[in-house]
Design a protein that fits this description.
single chain, 105 residues, mainly beta, 0% helix, globular
Length: 105
């Protein structure tokens, strides 16, 4: 899995395996300016959460569109900022899918 979260709130994600898969199971791995995320909640117990827009390709060459907004929960960034963990909840609350990502230099 290759994922890049940008400081401007955009992201790119691509399944890096040879077999057919999608980074967030749904949508497209193609880059799109509609792919956005935000961390917008910190609970009293200091649990960080937010959302991520899952983008789909339009039909017959139409423009991309946001199919739905997924949830990111239990977001944890390591002290050295080289690792991020979170749970992804998809359409209608399906999940969680646990992500444990390590920065590649």
């Amino acid at each position: 899995m290759d994922v890049t979260f940008s400081a401007d709130g955009g992201y790119s994600a691509r399944c890096s395996k040879a077999e057919c898969c999608l980074a967030f199971y749904y949508g497209t791995d193609d880059n799109s300016p509609l792919k956005t995320y935000a961390t917008d909640t910190v609970s009293l117990s200091k649990e960080v959460s937010g959302y991520i827009d899952i983008v789909f390709n339009g039909h017959d060459g139409d423009d991309d569109y946001v199919g739905w907004t997924g949830m990111l929960k239990k977001i944890e960034v390591s002290v050295d900022e080289n690792r991020v963990r979170f749970d992804f909840y998809g359409h209608k609350g399906h999940g969680p899918v646990h992500f444990d990502l390590t920065r590649v230099q």
